[in-house]
Amino acid sequence: TTPIKMICPWSLLANAALIITLVMQLCPASSSKAVVEHIQCAVCKLAIEEASRYTVEHRLHDEDKLSDLVDGLCSARRAEGRWIKHLDIVHFAGSEELTVNQHKDEGVCRKECKLVQRACAASLKGHEESLVALLPTAADDLVSVQQELCAQGCAAKRPGAFSFETWMDEAFVPDATAKQT
Question: 160 near 36, Cβ under 8 Å?
């Protein structure tokens, strides 16, 4: 009789890990940091537009309420940040840009939503107090507020390591459980 060879499950795991590592090195996914830096300017402008709209819609004037708004603006889980769930990051063939599209419906928050949240937080970091101070009158001159607060994120150089060929678009999926607006 022929002896039966036992295969060690650990060697199978090691081989699988080696294969995954090689595939990831040969076909790297777009760096999430690079994507965040790439969309930061557009997201910053949208965040300020949304903060202004929310301020007017909810008639916020109190500094504490405005601070709460700014604190929740970049969190899709909070009412102030639900606008993020309407966004989708897309790359059009032949373009050197990632585009942030707005959908009418609220979507399921997955990878791209989390990238938008990170871009929002990065763009507003250090500008929270300024945004709170500017919000009561932001609707009067939205473009100036956007230019002032988004200047750093919009002027940032995009990393050369970003590869559009490796961008894997995530389909926008409407959230069936979301309240209709």
Answer: no
